[in-house]
Design brief:
heterodimer; A: 111 residues; mainly beta; 6-stranded mixed sheet; globular; B: mainly beta
């Protein structure tokens, strides 16, 4: 079945630093999504990407849909303590199909 | 944004009993709802997909007779864990999505339900 490789698994950074994480797939996705999950909560959608090459921002977050449709990255600029959490990428093969999730990136921000 | 609620947020039950978890889309009609299970320090694993008014589609390895899913209306889906065992202890998360004119919109997730089976 589909697999998404997400890296890094965890990151420990200082407040104010920029962060980058990415996902790669063995096959093509038509939609890439990035979610954040806080402890004991469900994932919250951060950014949705629908076109190859698309670069989308949401505040300090920027995500790109890779040209090959097999990868995506998420950047967080000027990190703050509330950025702590687990970030998941997810891909959708076709509109309305199931989501495949990456393994997650645990982000820790030291004040 | 769209809001999805789950009830209860946590539940403790004894081995052998059944537990029902509700998932509601509060401000939109969900043509499709999904149920996921998440173990500690792991990603979300899709259990089943349910469309309003039809039987759920279960992922490989998920027992449909053990995890009963009902999607009776466009705003409510329920997951019943029957004859629960300690290994069923997990974080159960639902999500909801709507489609219009063949266009699918993003999945919105509920806050999750922590199930502990003793």
């Amino acid at each position: 079945g589909q697999q998404l490789n997400q890296s890094p698994q965890s990151m420990f950074i200082q407040e104010g630093e920029d962060v980058s994480m990415n996902c790669t797939s063995s096959s093509i996705f038509n939609t890439w999504l990035w979610y954040k999950q806080d402890p004991g909560e469900g994932p919250v959608l951060l950014i949705a990407l629908y076109k190859a090459g698309e670069l989308t921002s949401n505040g300090r977050l920027t995500a790109q849909f890779g040209i090959t449709r097999k990868d995506s990255f998420l950047n967080i600029s000027a990190s703050i303590p509330s950025d702590v959490g687990i970030y998941f990428c997810a891909g959708e093969e076709t509109s309305g199909s199931r989501l495949t999730f990456g393994e997650g990136t645990q982000l820790t921000v030291n004040p | 944004g769209a809001v999805v609620s789950q009830h209860p947020s946590w539940v403790i039950c004894k081995s052998g009993t059944s537990v029902k978890i509700e998932c509601r889309s509060l401000d939109f009609q969900a043509t499709t709802m999904f149920w996921y299970r998440q173990f500690p320090k792991q990603s979300l694993m899709l259990m089943a997909t349910s469309n309003e008014g039809s039987k759920a589609t279960y992922e490989q390895g998920v027992e449909k007779d053990k995890f009963l899913i009902n999607h009776a209306s466009l705003t409510l889906s329920t997951l019943t864990v029957t004859s629960a065992h300690p290994e069923d202890s997990s974080f159960y998360i639902c999500s909801a999505r709507t489609m219009s004119a063949g266009v699918s919109y993003e999945q919105y997730f509920g806050p999750g339900t922590r199930l502990t089976v003793t």
